[in-house]
Amino acid sequence: MSPEHVAAFLVAVCFAAGLNVYGTVAALGLVARAGFVVLPGDLGLIQSWWVIGACLVLFAIEFVADKVPIVDLVWNVLQTFVRVPVAGLIAYGALPALDPGWQLAAGAAGALLALVAHSGKTTMRAAVSASPEPASNIGLSLAEDGAVLILVWFATQYPYVAAAMVLVMLVTLTFVVRWVLRRLRKLAGSRVA
Q: I want to staple 113 with a disulfide (CB 3.0 to 4.6 A). Which of 14, 144, 148, 168 is the partner?
């Protein structure tokens, strides 16, 4: 991959890791194992069967936990300490040829992108979990899982398209999170009055 392709690839992969790190790493490993992509830098470790297997098991646990209201919120809060650092490590590991300072900056940028995705996901989950019916929670969770798989595929095959998809998702997340926060402020204000 050219440096520009690697940058676009990392934008998509780090964002996807912020949504579901286990699905992202497992999908990357499987796509690399199948020979559809040569992972950049030191990311070859991701295609180890041990890494893929562990991520698939954790993906299955997250798949179930993410569909249960309240459990999904607790799970997502705890995953902050996994998704964000792993995305940073992916960005760091993909660029071993860079000067260490730039490599650290890339890792920090990858972690920040994952944090933005993760924060948006958690905010939307908090809003949806408040509804009494489970269908919206399940639907949102399935959409997130699908988005991760689609992003990883496009990141490995069409990195610029994947980066553009992330840009659209970032804009959408910004509007949705602002809307949710305004609604929560109104709700809190009406309860106080």
A: 14
Q: How many domains does the chain have?
A: 1
Residues with Cβ within 8 Å of residue 181, at least 6 apart in sequence = 123
Q: Quote the percentage of the chain above a pLDDT of 90.
A: 66
**17 Cβ contact partners less than 8 Å away, ≥ 6 residues apart:** 24, 25, 83, 86, 87, 90, 110, 114, 117
State both tokens at 173: 């997340």
**Tokens of residue 11, six digits:** 């934008």
Q: For residue 112, count other CB atoms closer than 10 A to its CB.
A: 16
Structure pTM?
0.90
Residue that has been written with the tokens 């579901």 in this structure = 20
Q: State which residues form the domain around 57.
A: 3-192
The distance of Cα 102 from the centroid of its chain, to the nearest Å, equals 22
Token duo for residue 72: 């999904």
Average pLDDT, the chain: 90
Q: Provide the token pair at 172.
A: 């959408």
What's the CA gap between 21 and 19, in Å, rounded?
7
